[in-house]
Write a structure and sequence with these properties.
Glutaredoxin, 4-stranded mixed beta sheet, 13 strands, about 30% helix, Endonuclease, Chain A, 7-stranded mixed beta sheet
Length: about 240
């Protein structure tokens, strides 16, 4: 499986959020709320049960339920162990987006970069298509790599001379999947709760479709795919 096939596979795994005993305005608000998520929001009918609630299903499999108010507020619910849970979002391991432009992609990438910076150790893997595209991001990744215990490995198709770079590893690959994808992956320094990834396919110039995920299994697969298929030859 390639990176683009992974993106297509996530796209095909849509979940359904059914809205019960709510107003049409609330149903519309929920559709807007999940507009960039891999989820269909539909209105349901229920004569019994609480007022204004939603049910999330994966096919015929029940996943979770919550009140409309809780979902729209975006707030977590306190758990007995002192933590918090988000009834719907915690069941959406892969969150898709459509038609992101370069600015939106950069903003989404920053979320993962910031997590890696806070952890301060582990490895960040990133690819932006071509060397010329990578040049716009290089300063940020050199800053990340300046942390002694944080490694950065960048991938790009050579369309111009490789710029001078410090600390980061840049792997040049004449690969279609590297050229057509934008990805930022953090391995969490081995901690599952810190792992995260952004993966997108440039289907039209400057327009990206893809997903971000905090699912450790998906992150591990991406890291393994990169390490297995692309041998690092650059030396920082």
């Amino acid at each position: 499986m390639t990176l683009t096939e992974l993106i297509a596979g996530v796209e095909a795994q849509r979940k359904t959020l059914t809205v019960f005993n709510a107003t049409s305005a609330e149903t519309i608000a929920l559709r807007d709320h999940f507009a960039d998520r891999n989820i269909d929001v539909v209105a349901g009918e229920a004569t019994d049960g609480p007022e204004r609630f939603v049910v999330l299903r994966d096919g015929a499999t029940f996943l979770t339920a919550a009140s409309v108010e809780t979902v729209l507020s975006g707030e977590g619910i306190d758990t007995p162990d002192g933590g918090q849970t988000r009834p719907i979002l915690d069941h959406l391991d892969e969150t898709t987006f459509t038609s992101y432009d370069t600015e939106q992609m950069a903003a989404a990438s920053n979320e993962i970069e910031d997590r890696a910076w806070r952890v301060g150790a582990g490895t960040v893997f990133a690819g932006f298509g071509t060397v010329s595209d990578l040049c716009f991001q290089l300063d940020r990744y050199e800053r990340l790599a300046s942390r002694a215990s944080l490694s950065v490995q960048l991938y790009a198709v050579p369309d111009q001379e490789l710029p001078d770079h410090d600390d980061v590893v840049i792997q040049l690959e004449r690969s279609q999947e590297i050229e057509s994808t934008w990805f930022v992956v953090f391995d969490g320094n081995g901690m599952d709760e810190k792992k995260c990834a952004l993966m997108a396919h440039e289907r039209e110039p400057g327009s990206f479709y893809g997903f971000w995920t905090y699912d450790p299994g998906t992150v591990d697969w991406i890291v393994d795919h990169l390490l297995t298929n692309y041998t690092i030859t650059d030396v920082p």
